[in-house]
């Protein structure tokens, strides 16, 4: 496998994918073309508009973007792609569409067989066994919360630390993830904005400048330094 | 119907239900006993612990609390109760349990036939047609996102305004609700902490000190003053 699984597409004060483009270009060895999966539709934008947004970013490194929605057979598009990018937005929308079109298994097969994969936010969320640690609103009912499972732990993207002086009584992210661990055995990696997971063959590393927060059933959460292996999480 | 549907059980700096107890006592005419539904299990606490927490609050107004989990037939408990309280926690857990035990319809019937109802947070979320505007993490997969539908609009509890100077790139609450409205026709009431909806027969009013934010498909969100009728939302 060769994947970049990123917390977010965009960090504060810079353009779409800007902080990751050089890394993408090097890691995936100057990719000529990428198959874009726009189903998560951030803010409800159309597949075409979203694909254009990806194209505007990728053209800076000379990579052509083709939206999966423009193919007669999205399954065949996945099977034939050398490089696939799933963008962020609403994870429920994304997963519902992938299940309904029967693309979850073909996508998993492609990635585990070596097709390069880039995910951001919702596109990273689906790399875990389930989407049960998404932050998104359940705006549609998917036939299942199961996802790719190319990682054996779940991702919580855009991970936010509890605000020490907050007066808000809604649950913190940490509380929510602990509730998840009451119901599930899967570990969770809280991936802060600007962090990503680099999968290269058998190696899995945390990358970016920040540490990540690890949540496991029946133990206290802890910090994991950047450039640490994620094997065994 | 006679209901208090509150954004939160607890406001900053005060105890569980403290800000609402006097209102509950007056509105429901000094209730002697309340049937408590603890299935949302905030922070994963047990049904017993959660019921004790409710009891500790309600004893200040002389109301006895009985947990629905202590009855052989929870359906019969609902049918025989004069006053039902569903506490907050994780909405997915709550709804999964209500569906699995076949309690959604009996609860709807009871409330529409006049059984007093108090909901906070997740217990308020289920008063709309669906739970699709919950803030909670989907830690379990419920058989449906449909809920009581005793209101004809959805609730977003713990509503938070966008932070003007935030550097976080995760979606704001407003963005999430707009994504919901791209996929659904149901209006959404963003209910700030300390606000509640009072249903009394045919009347439905926003109560508390704050305004609420209304989101409708194909129009801009707007503020609704407190003590305004919610009929026709």
From TrEMBL, chains A, B:
Keywords: Dipeptidase, Hydrolase, Protease, Serine protease
Biological process terms in GO annotation: proteolysis
Keyword Hydrolase: yes
EC number: 3.4.13.21
Family per similarity comment: Belongs to the peptidase S51 family.
Pfam families per record: Peptidase_S51
A GO MF label: dipeptidase activity
Presence of keyword Cell wall biogenesis/degradation: no
Organism: Psychroflexus maritimus
Gene this protein is translated from: pepE
SUPFAM superfamilies found in the cross-reference section: Class I glutamine amidotransferase-like
The name this protein goes by in its record: Dipeptidase PepE
Enzyme class: hydrolase
């Amino acid at each position: 496998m060769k994947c970049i699984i990123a917390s977010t597409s965009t960090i504060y004060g810079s353009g779409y994918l800007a902080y990751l483009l050089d890394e993408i270009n090097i890691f995936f060895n100057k990719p000529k073309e990428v198959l874009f999966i726009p189903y998560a539709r951030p803010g409800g934008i159309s597949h075409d508009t979203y694909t254009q947004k990806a194209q505007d970013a990728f053209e800076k490194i000379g990579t052509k973007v083709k939206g999966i929605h423009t193919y007669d057979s999205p399954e065949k598009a996945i099977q034939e792609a050398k490089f696939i990018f799933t963008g962020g937005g609403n994870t429920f929308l994304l997963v519902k569409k992938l299940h309904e079109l029967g693309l979850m298994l073909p996508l998993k097969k492609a990635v585990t067989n070596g097709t390069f994969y880039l995910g951001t936010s919702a596109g990273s969320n689906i790399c875990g066994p389930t989407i049960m640690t998404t932050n998104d609103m359940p705006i549609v009912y998917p036939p299942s919360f199961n996802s790719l499972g190319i990682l054996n732990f779940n991702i919580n993207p855009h991970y936010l630390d509890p605000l020490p002086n907050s007066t808000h009584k809604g649950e913190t992210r940490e509380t929510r993830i602990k509730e998840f661990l009451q119901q599930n055995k899967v570990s969770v990696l809280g991936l802060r904005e600007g962090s990503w997971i680099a999968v290269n063959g058998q190696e899995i590393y945390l990358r970016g400048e920040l540490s990540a927060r690890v949540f496991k059933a029946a133990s206290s959460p802890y910090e994991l330094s950047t450039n640490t292996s994620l094997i065994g999480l």
